[in-house]
Amino acid sequence: MLKRCYVNALVLVSLAVPCAAQAPESSTIAIPKALRTASAQCSQGVVYDTGTFTLGYSIGSGNPDDATMVMKFDLPAGTTRLDQVCGCFLRSQAAGPSSMSFEALVYDDNGPGGQPGTLLGSVNAIASAIPMSPQFYSIDFTGSGIVLPDTSVYVGFRWPGGNIGLCGDTTSTTPLHTSFGSANSGASWINTQTMFAGSAPRVLGVRLDPKSVATTCTPSATALCLNNNRFRVTATFDTTSGQSGQAQVVKLTDETGYLWFFSSNNVEVVTKVLNACSFNNRYWVYSAGLTDVHVVLTVTDTQTGAFRTYNNPQSQPFLPILDSSAFATCP
Q1: Rg of the chain over CA atoms, in angstroms?
Q2: CA end-to-end span of the chain, whole Å?
């Protein structure tokens, strides 16, 4: 009886000892100096790399979804979607697959401490004939339906890992961009500076083409929208007797409209915005007035935010405005 109790106690003690946490299986793939230049896909978009890579980075042993790596992007103002994402992969000389199915991923940066947080969406892709040198693969995002909540997001890939690595650059002069890796499909993240300590990437082989939704002019009683609704014309007025207000507007053509102050039958100012990009690479603003009150006329390029203000002094006849250099914002 005593012996039996002693054995049970040993069993209970062994069950109470937790297993040591297992670190993710990570590895790097050396790239010979002569093979470090990458292909040019997405090179006209948002590119943080210098075009050359020193190592490939992998997690896991080649099983589906073993490796997930993402890099943080700060995109141009107004970016709400992505047109294209490009990922740079290479394979080691070890025997193994030279093609794979993978996912391009977009995460919000709302995780703990600014880590990847909410998965905003993914697009499935295939990489074929993966070489032993850096090769970018393009993924079309135009039909993904992914809408970015702001301009700070993580973009990267989930792939089998193993003998296939994501390109990275360790060159000390390359600016450092935050990146994370995961061995459990994004359930938890490790900064790549820790995961690959001693050979950590300063930048990963992730490029993208952002899509900005251009702001346009919204017509109203006081906003005249001209030239494909790109330019907004507004005005204020005041008189020597103390009358003041916003000009009311009437559109005549896509390029021309007029303003009135006191009565819709009484035209005060006529304004047009002309596309002269093919002539002097400018948009022109021409205006003429039939008034001598103080007028402040403002023309705004809603696509770029640039604006021009024209001031007619009180008790002075409205002089013609012939501004053939108004907006250097072609096309």
Answers
A1: 31
A2: 93
Q: What does CATH list as the number for 24-212? A: 2.60.120
Rounded (10°) CA dihedral 180, 185, 187, 190? -20
pLDDT at 188 over 50: yes
- Provide the token pair at 320: 């013609």
Phi, psi of 160, rounded to the nearest 5 degrees: -70, -15
Spatial separation of the C-alpha atoms in residues 319 and 55, rounded to whole Å = 66
> E strands along 31-66, which residues?
55-59
Mean pLDDT in residue range 85-103: 91
Does pTM top 0.70 for this prediction? Answer: no
pLDDT band at 22 (very low <50, low <70, confident <90, very high): low
Do 59 and 68 touch, CB atoms closer than 8 A?
Answer: yes
Whether 66 and 60 have beta carbons less than 8 Å apart is answered as yes
Tokens, residue 13: 């003690």
Which residue type is seen at 73?
A: F
Q: Please tell me the predicted confidence (pLDDT) of residue 196.
A: 97
**Alpha carbon distance 104, 83 (integer Å):** 12
Domain ranges of the chain: 24-212, 224-327
pLDDT at site 78:
75
Q: Does pLDDT of 3 surpass 50? A: no
Pairing of strands 267-276, 224-226: unpaired
